[in-house]
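note to self: dont lose this again. the chain is below, predicted strucutre after it. 519 aa total, dont forget to put it in the shared folder this time
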Amino acid sequence: MTTAADSTTSLVQSVDWLAIAPPVVVATVALAILVADLFLPEERKPLLGWATIAGLVASLALLVPLRDGNHATFCLTTATGGNQACSYTADHFALIIQVLVLGGALLTALLSFGGTRRLPAGEFWFLLLSSAAGAALLPAARDLATLVVALEVASLPAFALVGIKRDDRRSSEAALKFFLSSVVATAVMLLGVSFVYAATGTLHLTELATRLDDVPGPLATLAMTGVALTLVGFAFKTAAAPFHFWVPDTYVGAPLPVAAYLSVVGKAVGFSGLILVTVIGFPSYADVWGPALAVVAALTMTIGNVAALRQTATRARSAVRLLAWSSVAQAGYLLVPIASAAYTGDEQIGSTVAYALMYGVVNLGAFAVAALVARTKPDNRLSDYRGLYATRPLAALAMGFFLLCLAGLPPGIVGLFAKVTVFSSAVDAGLGWLAVVMAVNVVIALYYYLQWTATLFRGPEGPEEASALAGAAGTAGTLRVPMAAPVSLTAAIALTAAVGIVLSGAPQLVLRFAGVTLF
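---
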């Protein structure tokens, strides 16, 4: 006679600790920092930042043994043919997104280091690592319950990070808008997940793909509604139009490193979840979500680029606001290969992954330069970047390179190749109209990217600004740096610029890593 314990043993496999090590290490370091913050004196608080960086580096190192992509855990053995449905799978897709997420969190930590003196340091580092742990868990999640939990673990600390400047009304307002929009998204998503579960009786994505093919007639409408609501919830998370309204105010109100984190890691979380539920879980409804995502992609990129065009150079924080609208437009580009996958299969997903990797590197670099400029000009207007080359030539060159990468122009070759892969995915899927919309939007984006790039190298507008720049100049034509930048901030700019230059020289590296073949 089989006991309950024997039955459990036959169904639940042992835990593969190596597979789950990256998010577990990040979560463990987060808890350690929270406890250490209670005992460390104020003058020793910088140690918490170093511990954060060490934990993220260790988690990235733990991805190396997983590079074969053949690890899975928390699996149930079904009664039909011994097939396995796993809740956590460390495959090639999960590995790439985890590299992006943990690397983005590491760069965010470098941007934040030295800037947390006016913030509760222990809380800041704990919240950052907690969010990163959830973000690292999500791409490996293979059931809807784990997916939703990982998404909320990544999102909930982000609310607090946005509003961590307690004495800043704008920060509190940004956190409230971010919180309300995310709560609505979660509620809609959970309703959709409950409908899908009621119609199929399972939460595992691989099982969903099979059972949605054969949903009983009375439950077909319930299943379709559940699929639609789940996708709407993820549309909120990815800042896709018309659910993008929270982005500019949230980025402007948040500390700059947090805005950088949301623009890259937050997007990676949303898009990886969207890829998992559409391509793995809901392929039976590709005729529903494919056209819908194509329309949303066109709408998102158009709204983002048009809004970016309307930013005035003298408006306070217009530089961050332009980067926010730019990130909305980039979200539209990222949606194109996912929509294309509905017509041609999951091979198109590599284009989204490649574009996300490129975007993550250069967008974090652009925010790093913005953080550098904000040290002397906290209003961070676009006009504040005029003549940046005269005072900080290397920072100006780096910013120009990042903007050209986002625009897809040489010498930012990696940006050009990433856009070509996305464009090719639309053409291969027969979405010619979407390819045309994307081409028009790329041309629109050239205007504000090139305008900002030109501003970096322009001379002063008036005699007062000219005398200020002359005062910053040293003898013998050399330049005196206005304010010494923190080593960590300089390292973040240098690292992102170096990676961008390497990938522009050999763009096939990121394309091969993402599994994309152009020719």
